[in-house]
Amino acid sequence: MIDDLLDTIRNIAWDLGIGWEVAQLHPEQSPLVDTGRRLIILNSNWPNKREMPFQAAHELAHVINGDVGTYYYTRERTDSRIEGSANRQALKILVPLYFQSIDRENANVQQFMVDLSIPSWLEPKAEETIGAFYCRLCKTSGGDVDD
Question: Angle of helix 123-141 relative to helix 81-99, nearest 10 degrees?
């Protein structure tokens, strides 16, 4: 699952003209994005591989959001508007990929958070994003949201 998600996020980045590198860095070196160069760099030595799809989506989000500069991923909660926006956009990227073949009644936000090692303080935003994903599916399929 992790490799499939990373491949899909990489393909999204490439489709948007964003470069992608996976480098063997020190295990504590955070992934980063240089928005000016439109380049995402992930660390293949990162100690928690399950976290890498969220990292990748987060860094991709900085470019999609039009942020300017170099940003290093952090799991820490921040009041930064830019980082908060990148976290929300990362969830918008990941939720459809993760839940695409999961029926609404089987959707489990806690499992999503654990599977992708998403920081627990993002759970309310993940719940909101998952709810919006299934509401959009209901609207496009002609189903009732209360089904």
Answer: 50
Burial class of residue 14 in the structure, from the number of CB atoms within 10 Å of its CB (0-12 exposed, 13-18 middle, 19+ buried) = exposed
* pLDDT recorded at residue 140: 57
Q: Which tops the pLDDT comparison, 6 or 1?
A: 6
Please tell me the predicted confidence (pLDDT) of residue 79: 77
Query: Do residues 55 and 42 touch, judged by C-beta distance below 8 A?
Result: yes
**What backbone torsions phi and psi does residue 33 show, to the nearest 5 degrees?**
-135, 135
Q: Give Cα separations from 142 to 14, 64, 93, 128 (angstroms).
A: 33, 30, 23, 21
Query: 24: number of CA atoms within 13 Å, CB side?
Result: 0
